[in-house]
TrEMBL record:
It comes from the Eukaryota. It comes from Dendrobium catenatum. PANTHER family: CHM, RAB ESCORT PROTEIN 1, RAB GDP-DISSOCIATION INHIBITOR. Belongs to the Rab GDI family. One of its GO terms (cellular component) is cytosol. This is Uncharacterized protein. GO terms for molecular function: GDP-dissociation inhibitor activity. One of its GO terms (biological process) is small GTPase-mediated signal transduction.
Length: 128
């Protein structure tokens, strides 16, 4: 051990994930600790779920490759994404109506997004 070992700490537990706007990152940069650590950008969308970091599927293929979702959850997620896709398409084409079984009603557009997800009866794993 070095002579003045109480002046530093070695973290052997592995890499840490911080949001780029996190106060801890700001503190490390202001204190100069950032000169001794390596920051690496994480590509893709991640979420902290059930005690671990999971990637968020970003395509149809990624949804069906995902092992953490059940077959029913994959179906629910695809139906929800088709609903949103139909709504976006109807907004870009003024001749289509966004109301009805394939669109999002104007009332649903006024409620908070989390409440909309609850109304769509999506399971917690997908709502997060």
């Amino acid at each position: 051990m070095p002579e003045h070992s109480e002046r530093f700490i070695v973290d052997l537990s592995g890499p840490r994930v911080f949001y780029c706007a996190d106060m801890a990152v700001d503190l490390m940069v202001r204190s100069g600790a950032s000169h001794h650590i390596e920051f690496k950008s994480v590509e893709g969308s991640l979420i902290y779920w059930d005690g671990r970091l999971c990637s968020v599927p970003d395509s149809r293929q990624a949804i069906f490759r995902d092992q953490s979702l059940s077959r029913a959850e994959k179906g629910q997620m695809m139906r929800f994404l088709k609903l949103v896709q139909a709504h976006i398409a109807s907004e870009s084409d003024a001749t289509l109506s966004c109301e009805g079984p394939l669109g999002i009603s104007p009332e649903d557009l006024k409620i908070p997004f989390y409440n909309f997800l609850l109304k769509q009866k999506l399971p917690p794993k997908i709502r997060t």
